[in-house]
Every structure is written in structure tokens, then in C-alpha cells.
Amino acid sequence: MIPLLSVNYNTPDLIYNLVKSFRQFYPNDIHIIDGSNKDKRQELIALLQEFDNWTIHPFSGNIHHGMGMAYGFKMLSEKQILILDSDVTVLKYGFIEDLQENLPDNAYGIGDCQFVDDKGYNVGSRNNAHGLKESEMTEGGYRYLHPAIMLINRDIVLQWPMPINHGAPMIAPMIAITNAGKQNLLIHRDWVYNDNRNDKKIYASHPWMGTVIRTGGYNLT
Q1: Domain residues of the chain, as ranges?
Q2: Distance (Å, whole) CA 70 – CA 82
Q3: What pLDDT, on the 0 to 100 scale, is given for residue 130?
Q4: Nearest Cα residue to 11 out of 29, 35, 30
Q5: Phi, psi (degrees; rounded to nearest 5) at 201
Q6: 112-141: string of b/e by CB count within 10 Å (b at 16+)?
Q7: In this structure, are residues 81 and 3 in contact, taking their beta carbons and an 8 Å threshold?
Q8: How far apart are CA 181 and CA 126, in angstroms?
Q9: Which of 37, 40, 120, 206 is the most exposed place for a label (fewest CB within 10 A)?
Q10: Does residue 104 have a pLDDT over 90?
Q11: Distances (CA, A) of 168 to 40, 49, 90, 113, 164
């Protein structure tokens, strides 16, 4: 069964909402990579007592999103891993099945593919997510699989650079994949783009900056 991985820093109420909404539809194991302060971690543990099959992996300080994901990718052993931001709310059954059905075994991952520069800022048109334009490549654009809602094939992910401490934490593997001409490893799903950006959600609600606002910014480097 595909495990859920989420990275948390001092937002126990957001993680509680994520777990509560996820548990309405799925019994899958939940792994929380947690760099919270001691009091916030204890608050989170207390909130999660009503649920089963969750594990908190504690760190002594803010591990950040990228490093937290990297730890989870190496620590977990399942073939596929579902990643959800801490501020995601699951609205409907079937999204894991949709992602899994459309993720080839030899692909890196599936979700919302954007186009960014080497600093992680969006470039070019968001309307051509199924293929990177040559002009965008010339301008420094990289196909970027956003980790807010993402399913990955662990064995493929481990063949590429790990996520990093960055406002766009997937930037290192995305640059490597694009430079290798392997953008076809990154699979786009329109509903993930919709649920990340638009008001009429399908499977999940993601306020996009919910965690950023609460924790002090993107930390772009």
C-alpha cells in the first residue's frame, strides 16, 4: 500500500487537517517528517491520537521541505510514495488511484508540471505542461514537478539528485532531468494543476501558500 509522506514545521493544525481528511478515504500509512519545536510536536502527537497508522519522524530543528522529502525517499522502502503538502485537504476518494494508473513504472513521478528558471521561479507558458518548448529551454526553463501533490517511483527518484533546502525544493533533480533530456520522466495531470490553482477543486484543496505564510517564507536561495 502506498504510504503518504508529508513534511511539517510548527503547523500541527495543518497536519491534523491533512490526516483527518486523508483518513476519511484511505487507511494508508502516514509518515510525518517533523522539525517542529518540542511544544508543537507534543501538540501534534496529541491531535493525532484519534487516528491509526501514522509515524512521526522527529528532527531537532526545521529540516525544511526538500531535506525532509529526501530523508523520506531514502527511509521508506515502498515502490511508490505519495507526497502531500501539510496544508492539503483531501476532498474525494480516487486521486491516488488516478495518479498510480497514469504513472508508468519507468517514470520519475506524476503531478503538476510547471516551468521554472534555475532559481525556481516560473517562466514561459503554463498551458503547455505536456511538453517543454525549445524557446523555454533556451531561456533557461526547466520542467518542474511540484511536490505539493505528487506520486513518485522511489527507485527512479533515487537515481537522480535529491530535493534540497530551497523554495523550489525539487529544483536539483529537475535541472538534472531536463539537462539529460529526460523530461518525459515527469508526468503532468491536469486535475493536479487545477487543484493547486483553481477555485473549483476535484480531488484536493491546496491553498498554495498556506504553509509558507505560517512559517515565514519560501527561503529561496
Answers
A1: 4-111+147-160+187-211
A2: 13
A3: 43
A4: 35
A5: -80, 160
A6: bbbbbbeebeebbeeeebeebeeebbeeeb
A7: yes
A8: 20
A9: 37
A10: yes
A11: 25, 32, 23, 13, 8
The predicted-structure confidence for 24-55, as pLDDT tens digits, reads as follows 999 999 999 999 999 999 999 999 999 999 99
Residue recorded with cell 501539510:
86
pLDDT band at 141 (very low <50, low <70, confident <90, very high): confident
Rounded to two decimals, the pTM is: 0.89
User: What angle (nearest 5°) sits at the alpha carbon of residue 151, between those of residues 147 and 157?
Assistant: 80
C-alpha distances out from residue 128 to 6, 79, 142, 193, Å: 28, 29, 13, 12
**113 grid coordinates:** 508540471
Please report the pLDDT score of residue 122 as a whole number.
Answer: 86
Architecture of domain 4-111+147-160+187-211 in CATH? Alpha-Beta Complex (3.90)
